[in-house]
Design goal:
Mean pLDDT: 85
Distance between the termini: 43 Å
Low-confidence stretches: 17-22
Shape: elongated
Largest sheet: 4 strands, antiparallel
CATH topology of one domain: Beta-lactamase Inhibitory Protein, Chain:B, domain 1
Strand content: 25-35%
Structural class: alpha+beta
Radius of gyration: 18 Å
CATH architecture of one domain: 2-Layer Sandwich
Number of strands: 4
Length: 89
């Protein structure tokens, strides 16, 4: 492959991938927007869909992110009742 072809491949494949990997919504600023009583949809509007979710009898435990950056939010009746974060600062 010519040098020019490699440059085109790099530009079209690697640069967008690098830019998208830096667009995480798992930030301290977004965590600070989460408030008690918010609905599940309001939280999803801020953080996106959770990476993990367990739902049992009207309660949800949702986790956003992966180690070392995690946001953990618990919902009862579709409202935030507890939230915590690890590794954001």
């Amino acid at each position: 492959m010519t040098r020019r072809a490699w440059l085109v491949v790099f530009t079209l494949v690697f640069i967008p991938g690098l830019l998208l990997s830096g667009c995480s919504k798992i930030t301290q600023a977004n965590y600070d927007k989460i408030e008690m009583g918010m609905t599940y949809q309001e939280v999803v509007d801020i953080l996106g869909a959770p990476d993990e979710m367990q739902a049992v009898m009207g309660a949800k435990n949702c986790v956003w992110g992966k180690e070392p950056k995690i946001i953990d939010i618990k919902f009862i009746g579709d409202k935030v009742v507890f939230h915590s974060a690890k590794g954001l600062s």
